[in-house]
Amino acid sequence: MASTIETSDLKKGVKIIHNEQPFVVVDFQHVKPGKGNAFTRTKIKNLQTGAVLEVTYKSGEKIVAADVEDKTMTFLYADDQFHFMDAKTYDQVAISAELIADAKNYLLPDMTAAVVFWKGRPISVDIPNHVELKVSHCEPGVRGDTATNVTKPATLETGLEVNVPLFINVGDTLKVDTTTGQYIERTARG
Length: 190
Known about the structure:
The chain has one helix spanning 97-100; strands at 4-6, 15-18, 21-31, 39-46, 52-58, 62-64, 68-78, 81-86, 92-96, 112-118, 121-126, 130-138, 151-156, 161-165, 173-177, 182-188. The chain is an all-beta fold. The chain starts with a strand and ends with a strand. The relative contact order is 0.13.
């Protein structure tokens, strides 16, 4: 029997089952109107598809808690799938490219990621919000060009292409935002 929680237990990060799918609460608001019963307005994100729904629960309503397991895993390598290893048990799991989605642009061997399992299967992979990647190709850097917001394309070691300032060269290490895919800063010169 699956465990249940009350609407008063809904908080950001709580994982629940809605329409037989695992979701995580991303926002909630307990509402006590002057007339009528209290309720909880939530925004929930599907852990498998990333779709966000707005759902309202009546006060006192029982909600099924999602029986999900979060594991910190190390990325090993990619072929037609992405291979991760549990740092504690050394168990390995292969995850499809569809499930990895855009995270593939930021994964390097030995990088840690949070892998969420549901019913024994991996359903999502969360990577850090910022990663450091080396520039593998770009046009030569230009010194002295101080025009603001002038950029050039650079290809990073994972194949991701980002727009960077003109002073960036091949071999430089850049900090990149994994949520937007944008250059943040140069962290080391090549």
